[in-house]
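[User] At your convenience, examine this fold.
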Amino acid sequence: MDSVLREKWFTLSLVQQMINIGNEVKRGLRFASDPDKKAMFFEKAIRYTQLTMEDCKNAHVLPELLISKEVLEDYSGEHNLACSGEQISRYYQTYQYLL
């Protein structure tokens, strides 16, 4: 992971991190008809989630972050969890109201 991105990411609050992840999810859903673009945005959301998990200040929400990462990985892969894009998008939208 790029160290500059990592440093900048860790300066963001948890809410800001989650909003950024949600923005990538939203972009991925917008490009649902283009598998390459959809995959690119979801991979970015997964990378951002991983960074959020590595941020020490977020240790108290690690279980939730693990679940959200699993949901993103599943949605961009096999869909075993049966979460819809709308459900995932709504989850991340809630963070926008916390700013």
About this structure: The first helix runs from residue 3 to 11. Residues 3-98 form a domain with the Four Helix Bundle (Hemerythrin (Met), subunit A) fold (CATH 1.20.120). Helices lie at 3-11, 14-30, 35-54, 62-75, 85-93. The two ends are 27 Å apart (CA to CA).
